[in-house]
Amino acid sequence: MRMAELSRTSGVPVATVKYYLREGLLHPGERTNRNQARYDDTHVRRLRLVRALLDVGKLSISTVREVLAAIDSADTSLHDILGVTQHGLPVAGTEVPDDEARDWARERVDSLLDERGWHCDHDSAVTESLVGVMATLHTLGHTGVASMVDRYADAAQRIAEDDVRHVAGLAAKEDVVETAVVGTVLGDALLASLRRIAQAEVSGRLLGSAGEPVSPPESA
Amino acid sequence: MRMAELSRTSGVPVATVKYYLREGLLHPGERTNRNQARYDDTHVRRLRLVRALLDVGKLSISTVREVLAAIDSADTSLHDILGVTQHGLPVAGTEVPDDEARDWARERVDSLLDERGWHCDHDSAVTESLVGVMATLHTLGHTGVASMVDRYADAAQRIAEDDVRHVAGLAAKEDVVETAVVGTVLGDALLASLRRIAQAEVSGRLLGSAGEPVSPPESA
Fold first, then answer.
1. For residue B214, is it within any domain?
2. What span is annotated as the signal peptide, if there is one (chains A, B) (predicted)?
3. Mean per-residue pLDDT, A21-45
4. Which of residues 51 through 90 in chain A touch B, CB cutoff 8 A?
């Protein structure tokens, strides 16, 4: 297909397609004469992935380039491709001016990771983000909420297991990466909404009328 | 204590304390002469709650006023107080121009709520938010991720059960409300970080080397 049809099929404006070509996010088409090239389904597929990485994942152009290079390299494992992708996803930063709170949170997170045998990089952006949230809870005097982190980790592990099995079942590497990004970003939003709905439900059941006292969750 | 000490103890600037007094977010102190009043621990406690509702929960001033009125009303159940509070928490809005996707998502969410016997308001902001995310997944062609919503709902229900039992175990209504807001908002951030760390862990285990094929999650 020509550029005009590629644009129509993919829903990406011609100027944007040309920009992706210049930036190396899209492989060149097959040149048919000095001013024209022919594109095929691989271009449509790649454009779809690039849009998902940029629009849903909010990855930078240079990270998208790295992810695509990992996909196109025959000897990069799926785990490593997903690693490059996840590394590029923005994480919520938390500024915690309180050193004591940060030290407390760091120790708590380190031991959580050790106890679970989670061998991730203790200094990665996402671990830093976890430390930041825990430190904020400490600063606010809500270590009670922080003490529930083990239960949250149980839930997160169960969800992650489903997440990874879901993407691993897809055939093409591009599908795996696209689904991982969409599933991670929008999955957070799904979980947040469902948690609130479920909280209202549980609250109605346990606290709706002045009944017997509610037993606290068993300590983890 | 005098205003200056109330400000020091609570960490809230004097001008802000006076603003809260004018807005009715803080009950007046006991007047000792024409220009001075005496404050006590109830003021310190209330200021702490107001800060959490405004800073962490991002509630509007008028919603904070409603939440405080619910707390101060003897015949409002804890469930209703939490309802007013949760109703005021901002939710992520999603604009979905595609009517077909929205109808599809609406039907999916309605049947999810019905199957679980979740009797929440099908038109509430948080349900709308869930519909928006599902519709976005449909528009992006990721109904595979949307099909995992049942598993996410299982996880959300388990977490919500712990959340509500945790706050219900607290003695003062103000503690319940403050902890509910902090736990809901920062709990989302905890979950999101933990999910990413767990994904990397599971991915390393299942996809790190070219091993046997990975079995997909059982269909829900």
1. no
2. none
3. 93
4. 52, 56, 77-79, 82-83, 86, 89
- Give the CA distances from residue A81 to residues A64, A87, A125, A189, B55, in Å, rounded to whole numbers and listed in that order: 11, 10, 17, 24, 38
Residue A111 lies in a domain: yes
Verify whether the Cβ–Cβ distance A198 to B148 is below 8 Å.
no
Residue B218 lies in a domain: no
Provide the pLDDT for residue B56: 84
Same domain? B188 vs B110? yes
Do residues B109 and B47 share a domain?
no
Residue among B79, B92, B199 whose CB faces A208 most closely: B79
**A192 shares contact with chain B (CB less than 8 Å):** yes
* Residues B73 and B113 reside in one and the same domain: no
For A6, A55, A90, A161, A184, the CA distances from B192, given in Å and listed in that order, are 36, 19, 12, 14, 9
Q: What Å distances lie between residue A21 and A17, B47, B122, CA to CA?
A: 6, 56, 45
Per-residue pLDDT tens digits for B106-140: 999 999 999 999 977 777 889 999 999 999 899 88
Give residues with Cβ within 8 angstroms of A22, minimum separation 6. none
Q: Based on the fold, state whether residues B55 and B113 are members of the same structural domain.
A: no
What ipTM was assigned to the predicted interfaces of this complex?
0.87
CATH code for the domain in which residue B57 is found: 1.10.1660.10
Q: Do residues B58 and B128 share a domain?
A: no
Number of domains in chain B: 2
- B48 occurs within a structural domain: yes
| A173-214 tens-digit pLDDT | 889 999 999 999 899 999 999 999 999 999 998 887 654 556
B4 to chain A, minimum CA–CA distance in Å?
Answer: 22
Query: Which of A156, A178, A195 comes nearest B198 by C-beta?
Result: A156
Q: Which residues of B203-214 are buried (b: 16+ CB within 10 A; e: fewer)?
A: bbebbeeeeeeb
Q: pLDDT tens-digit profile of B46-99? A: 998 998 899 888 889 999 999 999 999 888 888 998 988 888 888 877 777 678
Claim to verify: residue A203 and residue A151 sit in the same structural domain: yes
- List alpha helices for B54-124, DSSP H: 61-72, 78-88, 99-116
Distance from CA of A123 to the nearest CA of B (A): 12
